[in-house]
Amino acid sequence: MATTPEVLPHLDAVQAALEDADLVVYVGGTPTSAGWSAPDKFAVLYPDPGMAVRESLADERTDFDTTMQITCVGGDPVRTLWVADKVRKALAAPLAVEGRSCWPPEDLGGPPLARDDDVTPPLWFLPVQYRICSTPA
Q1: Taking the model in full, what pTM does it have?
Q2: According to the model, what pLDDT value does residue 1 have?
Q3: 74 is in which domain, residue-wise?
Q4: Is the peptide bond before 49 cis (omega within 30 degrees of 0)?
Q5: Above 80 in pLDDT, residue 117?
Q6: What is the average per-residue pLDDT within 36-57?
Q7: pLDDT value of position 14
Q8: Which residues are within 8 A (CB) of 128 and not within 5 positions of it... i.e. 6 or more apart?
Q9: CA separation for the pair 80, 59 (Å, rounded)
Q10: Which of 7, 36, 59, 93 sits in a 20 to 30 Å window from 26, CA-based?
């Protein structure tokens, strides 16, 4: 009997791929502790819970489909776009998730580059979404 797919191993694989590309990565937001200051460039990963998808009419939900937003952040537009380029390169190959065969992540794009004036100093950000799919190995 096949097991139900889980989101956390997929999240870990995305985070590992980004960290292997020498990016500073936060999950679900940046730290809120006193004294924390933002690096000049980083990525924030916002996963959704994903869906266990039917592999056949037998209703075995062993395939997995999720969207993960990676918000690329920098101290200026060039640094932010540099992070976006590193993310794109890091997610160009299939992810390594134990017991799963992963498709290469699908770049779904996102809105244009924007400036966040609610932080001091202001930061630039660029959210990009990726579709992550896998099947049992």
Answers
A1: 0.92
A2: 52
A3: 7-28+38-46+66-130
A4: no
A5: yes
A6: 90
A7: 98
A8: 69, 70, 71, 72, 84, 87, 88, 107, 108, 109, 110
A9: 43
A10: 93
